[in-house]
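Good morning N.,

You mentioned wanting to compare the apo and holo forms, so I went ahead and generated the holo version with glutathione. This is what I fed in:
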Amino acid sequence: MKLYAHPFSSYSQKVLIALYENATPFEYRSLDDLSANAELASHWPLKRFPILVDQSRTILETSTIIEYLQIHYPGRVRLIPEGDAGIEVRMLDRIFDNYVMTPMQKIVLNQLRPEPDRDSYGVTEARGFLDRIYAWLDERLAGRAWAAGDAFTLADCAAAPSLFYADWAHEIPLTRTNLRAYRARLLARPSIARAVDEARPYRSNFPLGAPDRD
Ligand SMILES: N[C@@H](CCC(=O)N[C@@H](CS)C(=O)NCC(=O)O)C(=O)O
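and this is what came out, ligand included:
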């Protein structure tokens, strides 16, 4: 099983965390490597990553990859609970991807554009989105150890990299104590600490300038 991914990429970390949680063996095709990039393009013309290639099967989209891992390579940590409990997990996974990761990417990617092509309206909108989702998450997480309750799940795999970088791009206010404490708990979890450490050498590439913390 091959994962095409890059250590500094937030969506790559989402899947790496799932793999590390269950010590699932895989071949890491790092996109630092030119031949891995060519292989990625041959599997997925949009070249969005990570992707998982398991023999003749190509799995796209991080949430689906993690679902695939659970079905085909189950481990001690069940990342998507069965039945109704799975609804909260899947819902929060979509919320972290769509309403934390997407506005965070908007702010970060805007910085990579040439000055005349920057979208200040879109960035202001993205910052407003983050303010509102931080407030919503702060309430939702009250009394919870992990995103969906007592167990670590797919939702936490999505939460870790999205909140990690969102806080760099648009800091979580000090008043959002539940959310800030949750982010700190995520960073202390060994699978996540490992993904963050592997990305450390690339921090100088963060377009907004990486803060001196985490
Ligand atoms: N919805 C996709 C998003 C993947 C994604 O946006 N990945 C980023 C890296 S973190 C990417 O491919 N960026 C390169 C690009 O946009 O061309 C998923 O869940 O897999």
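Residues 9-11, 47-49, 61-62 surround glutathione (CB under 6 Å).

Happy to go through it together on a call whenever suits you.

Best,
F.
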